[in-house]
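DM from R.C. (forwarded with permission)

"hey, sorry to bug you on a friday — could you get me a structure for this? deadline for the figure draft is monday and I only need the backbone to look sensible"
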Amino acid sequence: MVSVFVLIAGMLGATFLLRPYFMQSIALHPAAYVANGIGLILGAAANLFVAAAFNKISSETYHSFMGISMIGWSVIGAVGGVALAVYGWTL
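My reply, with the result:
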């Protein structure tokens, strides 16, 4: 469950921090897509650090949400983030 919150936090942070920057050169909706995509990528990277920290605490601990591990959520977030950013950039 922590994984999903880290990914959402990355998207929210990027939306508020990067969207105004991108809106200087592109329209609102593409800027939001690109910012959210970058946020998902950053959230996925942060999620990997959280997974590494959990593994340092205890190697027997297995954290999953909906049957997907933290590394799995990171991969999903990174792939989705790249797709979202590319889609926004091509609009």
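R.C.: lifesaver. The chain has one domain: 2-90.
me: no worries. The beta strands are 64-65, 68-69.
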